[in-house]
Amino acid sequence: MRFSPYSSERSQPPIIEEPLRHPGPVEMPDIDPVGITPPRNLFTELTLANTSEPARSTMRSRMVRSAAGGLVALGLVTGSSAFEAAPAAESSHIYNVANTGGDGVWLHRQPGLNNGPGDLILTMPEGATFYADCFAYGTPVGPRSNPVWLHGHDQQGNAGYFTDFYSSSHWGRSNTLQQQGLPICGESGPSEQQHFEQLPDQQVQRNPQPASVFYSPLKPPTGLRDITVAGDINRSIEEWSSGNCSPDKAVQGVPESVDTLAGWSIGRLGPIYFLARATEEQKKRIKNIILIDPGNTDSFKAREVLGVPVNKRCDDNFDINKLLANWILGDSSHRLTILSGRTTEEKQDDNDENSKSTFKGLWSSYLAQLWNVPQAENQVKICDYNYMEHEEIWRKLSWVVKERNMSCVPVNDYKLTQWHP
């Protein structure tokens, strides 16, 4: 477990399959690309969070694995009995456990830390879904003293509070949780607006300077219309692509404060275009690149019919292997994380989720010059979510862009394998 100044609120994550070294490129028959379902309704939210270091808790729990794959606290080491989960409540405010570095976060009976024996219910793993029905004020958590604690329940119906600092909620002085429709629990105490008016401006906004850019493969800037959490800056495909494989627009509108670029599906070309056109100084400022289910051989390369290329891909216009290798090997602080699902896996039998994944296109078009390079093992990571559909992986993990999370985050019901070139 990796500890941080806030590790008292974190806990152990679900067990992930041991990291492995992929054997390298293997042959694989062509597979038809997976299509994208038309987007639905779009919601946008402002950002916040990051806010005093909590008192370090000394409580420890005996942990067991639940049927859903999470870790459940059976009781404190002092000998208290197991807790029963409260009944699930209906809610339309859905968030994820985020920014714990894979450690997970405690679910409490009361809002705040150090509430005494019996307060800790269980551990929610990184990425777990939480259905909030109200919020309360409790012990401030984080470097900017975030006092908000969300109340609701997880997917198993376990009800309680957890600190908003480790959630994917996004709010600000002009877009508070109440304005988004989430009430204060019990309707007691000062209003959220009154509470924030008492705080300095720097405590009511996270990342005042944008740190991440997301390149969407579609017109909705967040990729799908119902996705609310993506980058600090979200660019529709029309904003970063001119339609003729030109990389010029991908560099425009990326402030100097940005250190993370991300793309889902064909949005993979956004970071690639940036590397192709940016100056050395601009490329040096980018520390993280996240590619979410970027594609397969059919996505990256044109097919040939009677020796004539058809369905030409813009990937063919660039030496992506070289661009990524030069960027990675040029600075030891640079990190590349690829979150792969069914599309990128290119299984030997695409109809069998237990079939072997070949990653043929990824190897040949993106990672060829990083294979067996010792330095790359520490800087390049592939997080494979076995047989997760193309849209599903974005829906489950879109929040990692804003959080600039470069770790492999467990997702319920999906086998996760981490490997390096």
State the end-to-end distance.
Answer: 24 Å
List the uncertain runs.
Answer: 1-8, 10-91, 195-207
Shape: globular
Which H/E pattern describes the elements?
EEEEEEEEEHEEHHEHHEHEEHEHHHEHHE
Indicate the proportion of strand residues.
Answer: 15-25%
Largest sheet: 8 strands, mixed
Number of strands: 18
C-alpha Rg (nearest Å): 22 Å
Mean pLDDT: 76
Structure write-up:
The chain has 421 residues and is an alpha/beta fold. Helices cover 17% and strands 23% of the residues. It contains 12 helices and 18 strands. An 8-stranded mixed sheet has the order 1-18-17-16-13-12-10-11. It has a 4-stranded antiparallel sheet with strand order 4-7-8-9, with no helix packed on it. The longest helix is centred in the last third of the chain and has 10 residues, at 320-329. The chain is globular, with a radius of gyration of 22 Å. 45% of the residues are buried.
Which descriptors would you attach to this protein?
eight-stranded mixed sheet, single chain, about 15% helix, 12 helices, disordered N terminus, alpha/beta, globular, about 425 residues, four-stranded antiparallel sheet
In short:
The chain is α/β, with parallel strands linked by helices and 421 residues long. The chain has helices at 192-197, 237-240, 248-251, 269-277, 280-285, 297-300, 320-329, 342-345, 360-365, 374-379, 390-397, 399-403; strands at 17-21, 61-65, 71-76, 93-96, 105-108, 120-124, 129-141, 146-154, 159-163, 212-215, 233-235, 260-264, 288-292, 303-305, 308-310, 335-340, 380-385, 416-420.
